[in-house]
Amino acid sequence: MLWEDMAEMICMECQYVGKPKRQKRGSTKAEIIAWLLFPFGLPYVFWRILHKFPVCRHCGSTMLTSTESAVGKRLLEKQAEELEQMVRHAPPQKEIKPAEIQLPEVKKPSTQNEW
Ligand SMILES: [Zn+2]
Predict the structure, then answer these.
(1) Domain range for residue 19?
(2) Ligand 1: centre distance to CA 48 (Å)
């Protein structure tokens, strides 16, 4: 799958949604892991050499998935649900007036005149 330039992506690490940055090829953890998994990582390395890959603008993660993909859609749904829950559980905005504190009048015992 080729990453399209204008496609919005969703980050699986921080759930940032938006257009990713394009990371040029260079040394990254992912490639090191790919080489460690040699020869299993080889297709990844080739894929990477052939294409610049998108990284999350927010956290730099490469764990991005298209918002069009099944995983991306599920993440978006989850986000929407969480947002909805937050709105529902948020207390209604009321103007908080400072409580009027009325101190009970302290009645001093009336001084009795001594006759
Ligand atoms: Zn991220």
Answers:
(1) 9-87
(2) 19
